[in-house]
Design goal:
By secondary structure, the protein is α/β, with parallel strands linked by helices. The chain is 34% helix and 10% strand.
């Protein structure tokens, strides 16, 4: 694999082309110098070739169907976006589309009530639910080299979040789809990297924004302007 041209690394977030004119939206469209649709055709083709695997193809196909089914009046002209399904419903429907029977639910201990409710919904919808809390195993934070001053409660007994154990438990249970609920930054990454089954995110943790991290993005010009005006270290 050749090294990418540093000047043309994908930076889709910086694309200033209006949506109806983007090359990734319409074949008659256009894109900037860093547009991967125009300049990373080898990578795109390599990705498309992954669909030759029947299981990957079916997963992608059902995901696209699920996406479309989240809107109504799709045959109307002009089309007006009208979404009708919350994410929890999407997950249930998609798992049924894939004919999954055993779902994994990995959650933060701060989301116990939510996990109990989600597990109840999934069971009611016909799934077997395997669940694991982040503190599973009760491993002390000293095991990963934390000092007392690096704990949440300095001087207290404190067990580590254990996403690797959560992944191992799901792997050994042979879950078919894992649902991630409220894991911390970094802990979610470890779980996603080491879980063998596909995983989807139901909710992420944001201790300040009530688990709605986009609130900080939406208020960059007001309450969250510190993200643009100060160094966050």
């Amino acid at each position: 694999m050749s090294e990418p041209n540093q000047k043309n690394l994908p930076r889709c977030a910086n694309c200033g082309v209006p949506k109806p004119e983007k090359i990734c939206i319409t074949k008659e469209g256009r894109g900037p110098k860093f547009c991967p649709t125009l300049h990373e055709t080898e990578a795109i083709e390599a990705a498309v070739q992954l669909l030759e695997d029947p299981q990957t193809l079916e997963f992608a196909r059902q995901a696209a169907i699920q996406e479309a089914e989240c809107y109504i009046n799709r045959d109307k002209k002009p089309f007006v976006v009208h979404p009708v399904k919350p994410r929890l419903q999407e997950i249930v429907e998609f798992a049924h589309k894939m004919k999954y029977k055993r779902l994994g639910l990995v959650f933060c201990d701060g989301f116990y009530k939510e996990a109990l409710a989600v597990a109840k919904v999934l069971k009611r919808q016909g799934f077997e639910v395997v669940s694991a809390i982040c503190k599973a195993g009760g491993v002390p934070k000293e095991r990963i080299g934390l000092k007392q001053e690096e704990k949440i409660r300095i001087g207290a007994e404190e067990n580590m979040c254990n996403p690797l154990a959560q992944a191992e438990l799901m792997n050994r249970a042979h879950t078919e789809l894992n649902i991630v609920l409220g894991l911390c930054v970094g802990h979610d990454s470890l779980f996603l990297k080491h879980a063998e089954a596909y995983s989807t995110i139901l909710a992420v943790k944001d201790r300040v924004m009530g688990h709605n991290p986009l609130a900080a993005v939406y208020t960059l010009e007001s309450y969250s302007e510190r993200f643009l005006k100060t160094e966050l270290r």
